[in-house]
Write a structure and sequence with these properties.
- With 352 residues, the protein is mainly alpha-helical.
- The longest helix has 21 residues.
- It folds into 3 domains: 34 residues; 159 residues, Cytochrome c-like domain (Cytochrome Bc1 Complex, Chain D, domain 2), CATH 1.10.760; 141 residues, Cytochrome c-like domain (Cytochrome Bc1 Complex, Chain D, domain 2).
- Helix 3 runs antiparallel to helix 7 and helix 3 crosses helix 8.
- A two-stranded antiparallel ribbon has the order 1-2.
- Helix content is 36%, strand content 1%.
- The structure holds heme C (2 copies).
- One heme C (HEC) binds next to helix 4 and helix 5.
Length: 352
């Protein structure tokens, strides 16, 4: 057995050496992570396995560094806006304002998105323009509507800070700070924002039962009557895909996914948001046009726009929507609110 372990370690060492020659970036992480303490992210019962690039394995030190960066206004031009300014824990890491305000005092183009369960997503932003969590995390500093600092300046600020170099050293084995390591640390922190402590999850485990109203809502949600499950299905309450859900008529279609694909059939398609934690994430939709869940349900029931790109799953688009009665609407909302995780927005471990 010992011999086998020696052999396996030897082969692993050879493999790492070969990797080092090919890709200095990966080798740096492989070597450096050896000192850091692995952070084990627990997959909630019933959730699928998550996707994580191997070279950004979570460590206690990496997560702690990412958390500090996420909450640090040092990363914005005027030292006044951090990631957390627009992604507030009390709002399930979204923003109660319809538009967030960046370091230049200007408004963002869209409503801020909630940040949780990112471990089970592969495309980011309303239009899906970031294809990895790391790519996403690099963007706010370059965005003039958000932090507008640029990474050269950010790296300078971090490098001359009394604390950061040793924190990078602890997390990645190097105090030579760069944008990729900073983004990786922020992603490590984001990965720990897992929200699954709801009545709905307890019900899935057979540990809670729904009221008659919630059960009626569950059936509407998961049947052709409401059809929500087609896009907001699975334990994640989203298909993580892009759809046009009929918010606007042809004349008012915003680009959405078209920004990425340049395909006219993608005009007005946006990333399907999860319906978990809606109690905390108002206002709703990419532009935050609806203030309440009631308004959202009224929209799906009574005012869906039958534009050229409206999704085939919005089957009642030609008649303005599902035509739910008052009892059905209330039941649907009661069910959706079983996906509320109050412990998540109060968890002291998620803030510095
Ligand atoms: C000024 C406000 C603001 C700041 C600062 C900000 N964000 Fe955002 N964030 C937004 C808005 C608005 C969106 C949606 C923008 C879009 O889709 O174009 C968003 C989207 C995201 C998403 C995509 C979530 C998803 O489900 O696709 C992630 C992740 C994210 N932000 C993380 C961060 C991180 C990390 C930082 C700090 C480096 C940060 N944000 C700073 C406002 C902000
Ligand atoms: C064809 C796919 C599809 C179907 C079916 C669907 N939705 Fe959506 N839903 C979306 C998309 C896409 C968005 C984001 C649209 C946007 O912002 O432009 C969205 C947004 C929402 C939002 C806003 C969430 C937020 O964080 O802003 C709520 C609430 C919602 N849907 C509830 C429902 C309910 C309830 C049903 C069933 C009655 C339903 N949806 C059916 C695709 C769908």
């Amino acid at each position: 057995m010992k011999k086998l372990i020696v052999l396996v370690s030897f082969l692993a060492a050879v493999f790492i050496l070969v990797q080092c020659e090919k890709d200095p970036f990966v080798s740096q992480i492989e070597e450096s992570n050896s000192e850091a303490t692995p952070y084990y992210l627990k997959v909630p019962q019933g959730f699928p396995d998550y996707f994580l690039k191997q070279e950004n394995a979570l460590t206690e030190e990496g997560v702690a560094l990412g958390k500090k960066l996420f909450f640090d206004p040092l990363l914005s031009k005027n030292r006044d806006v951090s990631c957390a300014s627009c992604h507030l824990q009390s709002s399930s890491f979204s923003d109660p304002r319809q538009r967030s305000i960046g370091t230049n005092g200007t408004s963002t183009s869209f409503h801020s998105m909630p940040i949780f369960n990112l471990a089970w997503m592969n495309e980011f932003f309303w239009d899906g323009r970031a294809k990895s969590r790391e790519e996403q995390a690099l963007q706010p500093l370059n965005n003039p509507l958000e932090m507008d600092l640029g990474w050269n300046e950010a790296v300078e600020r971090l490098s001359s800070d009394p604390e950061y170099p040793s924190l990078f050293k602890a997390a990645f084995g190097t105090s030579i700070i760069d944008s990729n390591l900073a983004a990786q640390a922020m992603v490590q922190y984001e990965m720990t924002l897992v929200s699954a402590d709801t009545k709905f999850d307890a019900w899935l485990r057979g540990e809670a039962s729904f009221t008659l109203e919630e059960e009626m809502g569950r059936i509407i949600y998961n049947s052709e009557r409401g059809d929500c499950f087609h896009c907001h299905g699975s334990v994640l309450a989203t298909d993580n895909s892009f759809h046009n859900n009929g918010l606007d008529s042809d004349a008012d279609l915003k680009p959405g996914l078209f920004n990425v694909t340049q395909d006219e059939a993608d005009l007005g398609k946006f990333k399907t948001p999860t319906l978990r934690n809606l109690a905390f994430t108002a206002p709703y939709m990419h532009d935050g046009r609806f203030q309440t869940i009631e308004e959202v349900v009224d929209f799906y029931s009574d005012s869906v726009q039958n534009n050229s790109n409206v999704d085939v799953l919005m089957k009642k688009a030609t008649t303005g929507g599902l035509g739910l009665n008052k009892t059905e609407k209330e039941a649907l909302i009661a069910f959706i609110l079983t996906m509320t995780d109050s412990s998540f927005i109060r968890n002291p471990l998620l803030v510095p």
